[in-house]
Design goal:
With 241 residues, the protein is α+β, with helices and mostly antiparallel strands. It has a single domain, classed as Glutamine Phosphoribosylpyrophosphate, subunit 1, domain 1. The chain contains 5 helices and 12 strands. A 5-stranded antiparallel sheet has the order 10-1-2-11-12, with helices on one face. A 5-stranded antiparallel sheet has the order 5-6-7-8-9. Strand 5 and strand 6 form a beta hairpin.
């Protein structure tokens, strides 16, 4: 399994994914789940993936192939689509096609293969947008009322986002929120694991402004995790029953 989260804020977007993929207790591997497509100054698109590795890898490969196709057109290339809505539609259509093809083969073995994706980005002249794309290809969009989206093992990391994230949240506080959300998930679910991929896209930058891989031995993340645990214990102790 996995955990990915994306925040859409007044100041920009903050995205975080883990990298663990497992097919049983004795078959654990690391795969990147954040994919960046950009033409700096023109547009930036980030895609986070969760679910069946065969589905997500094939979908990303087809999106990349459409970009490099000599006959690429705005209907198929996410770097040529005129709006982020149409980018989400291309991703959704590709994901749906791949899911259907792979599932038809999996049905014969009585197995399932599904995946979902977070699509974030901005094109020149347009606003920042954040979408959650379902296996069937349909999607929902983040709004000022709910400025974040999650895929994968999201339940453990949701409470802190509900309590602290608003559209006006700063990028610095947003980084902290997604990392603590991930820390809660790491502690409660073994199917989510390090390293982590953090991506920040500032409003109107039209490029990735921060990209960081956080390894298991990262001192900064470890200190944040310990501080959060201590803060929770102290808050619990201070509450009068």
């Amino acid at each position: 399994m996995t955990y990915c989260v994306g925040l859409l804020l007044d100041a920009g977007m903050v995205l975080l994914s883990d990298t663990r993929t497992n097919a049983g207790l004795d078959n654990i591997a690391t795969y990147r789940k954040t994919f960046i497509f950009q033409e700096p100054g023109e547009r930036v698109v980030a895609i986070l993936t969760a679910g069946s590795l065969s589905v997500t890898q094939t979908t990303i490969a087809r999106l990349e192939e459409a970009i490099t196709d000599l006959d690429a057109d705005p209907e198929h290339s996410i770097l040529m689509a005129p709006t982020m809505l149409q980018v989400a539609q291309i991703v959704g259509r590709t994901l749906s096609d791949v899911s259907s093809e792979i599932q038809s083969r999996m049905d014969r073995a009585a197995q399932t293969a599904t995946a979902s994706m977070i699509v974030a980005g901005q094109r020149k002249g347009g606003g920042m947008r954040l979408f959650l794309v379902y296996p069937e290809g349909n999607f929902i969009e983040a709004t000022p009322d709910t400025p974040y989206l999650q895929i994968g093992e999201h339940k453990y990391g949701k409470p802190i986002l509900d309590r602290v994230v608003e559209s006006s949240t700063s990028l610095a506080d947003a980084r902290k929120a997604v990392l603590l959300s991930m820390d809660s998930t790491l502690r409660s679910n073994l199917s989510v694991g390090m390293p982590l991929d953090l991506t920040v896209i500032e409003r109107d930058a039209l490029r990735v402004t921060e990209e960081k891989r956080i390894e298991a031995d990262d001192t900064w993340f470890q200190e944040m995790s310990r501080a959060w645990s201590a803060a929770l214990r102290n808050a619990y102790t201070d509450i009068k029953a």
